[in-house]
Write a structure and sequence with these properties.
By secondary structure, the protein is α/β, with parallel strands linked by helices. 43% of the residues lie in helices and 8% in strands. Helix 6 links the parallel strand 4 and strand 5. Bound molecules: zinc ion (ZN). Zinc ion binds next to helix 3.
């Protein structure tokens, strides 16, 4: 899914553009903020603007058209896009060093460091966009380090991530951090409407997305909804075997099994926080599920044990190979 227009982030975009025009932008930037709020799109806009015939990222001209469509190219005259590949979903060293794809075929005309050192096309910079930068592994991260520290003149790295804590500390310290805030609910829903969403889903879509566009895809949204329902059932003491299905990883998915547990576990943390809010007389953040949550917020319920279990499980996700026992263990803490 690839949206054409940039939504929101007005102040950040204006500031970046101004600094670029005045030559006050660092060689390596780290865009951080929640998943699915358009950080990558803002990075692309900087490159698109330079190839745009009107220099505005108008979205209409031949230059802009190169940045559009379902399959955005990995290499453009002023841009390289590096994304995680293969079953493990990591950014590998040969992607960086030789510019290969997961089948060892050339993806770029040359390796990334070499590409970065070429003279930029006229009136352009060279942009190297590292998407989901937390998926750089130690060796690919280390090979980037030297170049990140001092990219050749006119070359800019933009690392985009919603999990900066998972990046090598040495990489973080070499980049200037540009934080992004979630979109306003109204901004996010405007995009949803443009993508065919209906008013009937408005409240739940906005509550689950928290100012992001990560549930623009209907399958992803329905799955998150089913996960909330599953946790509510488990919180109400229903049997794990009957209700856990939507929480378990899909065998066919590209995302590694352990990583697929991140979303349901984070949803449970949000539900537990809402139970604490209700108990304190406040409104729950997941307001559309208020009625199901209220009877579960009894004073006897222990919220600390499940919170601790979820946090512990999240810490071990990158290495976790058996999702079901891990979920079962978390679910056990819900019925104390
Ligand atoms: Zn244009």
């Amino acid at each position: 899914m690839y949206s054409l227009d940039v939504v929101g982030h007005q102040a950040t975009r204006e500031r970046l553009l101004l600094r670029l025009q005045e030559g006050r932008i660092r060689g390596s930037l780290l865009f951080t903020g929640p998943e699915g709020i358009g950080k990558r799109r803002v990075a692309l806009e900087l490159a698109q603007r330079e190839l745009c015939f009107r220099r505005t990222a108008c979205g209409q001209c031949e230059g802009c058209r190169m940045f559009q469509g379902e399959d955005l190219p990995f290499e453009l005259p002023n841009l390289l896009r590096i994304t995680p590949e293969g079953k493990a979903g990591v950014i590998r060293i040969d992607q960086i060093r030789e510019g290969l794809d997961s089948n060892n075929q050339p993806r770029f005309s040359r390796g990334v460091i070499e590409w970065a050192a070429l003279a930029p096309p006229m009136a352009c910079h060279r942009w190297i966009l590292v998407e989901e930068a937390h998926r750089l592994n130690e060796s690919s991260g280390n090979i980037l380090l030297k170049t990140l520290e001092e990219p050749p003149p006119g070359t800019h790295f933009i690392l985009v991530t919603h999990r900066p804590e998972a990046l090598l500390q040495t990489i973080r310290s070499r980049c200037e951090r540009i934080p992004f805030a979630p979109l306003a609910p109204r901004e996010a829903w405007t995009v949803a409407l443009r993508n065919g969403w209906q008013e009937a889903d408005h409240e739940r879509w906005s509550a689950l997305g928290e100012g992001s566009l990560r549930f623009l895809d209907e399958v992803a949204f329905r799955r998150a909804e089913a996960q909330v329902e599953a946790w509510l059932a488990l919180l109400a003491g229903r049997p794990f075997t009957e209700w856990a299905a939507p929480l378990l990883p899909e065998k066919e998915a590209v995302l590694a099994q352990g990583e697929q547990l991140r979303q349901p576990l984070e949803l449970l943390l949000r539900l537990l926080a809402d139970l604490a809010r209700i108990r304190a007389g406040e409104a729950p953040a997941l307001a559309p599920w208020r009625e199901a949550l209220a009877p579960l917020a009894t004073p006897q319920r222990d919220l600390k044990a499940p919170q601790a279990a979820v946090l512990e499980a999240l810490r071990h996700l990158p290495r976790n190979l058996s999702p079901e026992p891990l979920l079962r263990e978390v679910a056990l803490t819900l019925v104390s």
